[in-house]
Specification:
single chain, elongated, five-stranded mixed sheet, Trna Endonuclease, Chain: A, domain 1, disordered C terminus, 9 helices, 7% strand, 7 strands, alpha/beta
Amino acid sequence: MMDILFHVAGAPIRGADAFIGAALLALFLLSATLLAVLHAARSRRLEGAVANERQRDFDERVADLSRMNAELSGRLRAVSEVMADRLDSVGHKVGQGLEQSARSTADQLARLGERLAVIDRAQANLSALSQEMVSLKHILSNKQTRGAFGQGRMEAIVRDGLPIGAFTFQSTLSNGSRPDCIVKLPGDDRPIIIDAKFPLESFTAFREARDEAQRKKAAVRVRADVNRHIRDIESKYLLAGETQDIALLFVPSESLYADLHEHFEDVAQKSAAARVIIVSPSLLMMAIQVMQAIVRDARMREQAHLIQAEVRRLLEDVTRLRERTTRLTTHVRQVNEDIETVDASMRKIATRGDRILQLDFEDRRAEPETTHPEGATLAFGAARAV
């Protein structure tokens, strides 16, 4: 019986049991070690196989990468060549496009320069026109210069339409007044008076009125100024036995004339009743054309006897021409008759000559070798007999 070495959980442990347990533990540890070694060897084999597989895979991938790199290099070379060709063509096209663009730009710049020159000329014309408008505004703002402007327009219309001697400017009447223009019509010593001093300040105020009160005030002023000027014309220029029964009041603007008849019809009616006819530039031109026709008709009547004398002389010349033509026709007829007579004589002469030639031919055939004066005399006498 062996000694008890120790107790475990109340159970006695003897030396044999401890030895057996140690042996079993050693066997377990050896088995575990063997299993671990086997497992490690297996793991190393597996790892070697995996490494080999990975190496093969790596080699295949490297080979694929090399192949792909070669293909990519070839493609890159092809692409580079294509790109070089395309870049060359694109560069050529771009060069042509730039050249065309340069030419087009140069042409456009040239046209732009021409247009700018035209614009500069138009700008100069506009500047000149604006200066003229400013000067016209200054003229219309000053009463004296405005009167000179209306006087100038009226004189231009009269000079263009009537002959010299049919009108005068700034003449003096018997009462000492000096109208702007008088027109003398043929057959009547009394001239027609034309006045060009139309009141414009009140019309300017009427147009520039901002409210109804100012407009009414300006309208009252227009009526007063125009009526006063009409009375002045009636008293100064309508002289019995010296001037015509009507006078013309010249308005130097069509728009002013239209405003007068649109807004101040009563003033126009009073003016017509006072025998003062308000005319615009177009109406004055029509009146001057009528006067021109009257002057032309009067001058034609004055020259009618001269025209009749010339027509009489023309008829005499025609009569003499007809007589001379008749005599010439008689001479031509006689010449034609003489020519026909000469032609008949020439035909007779030609016929006789033919007969003489035929008779001479027969004599020569009968006696080809004999020629003496008696035969010739006989032949000539026979020819004359024929």
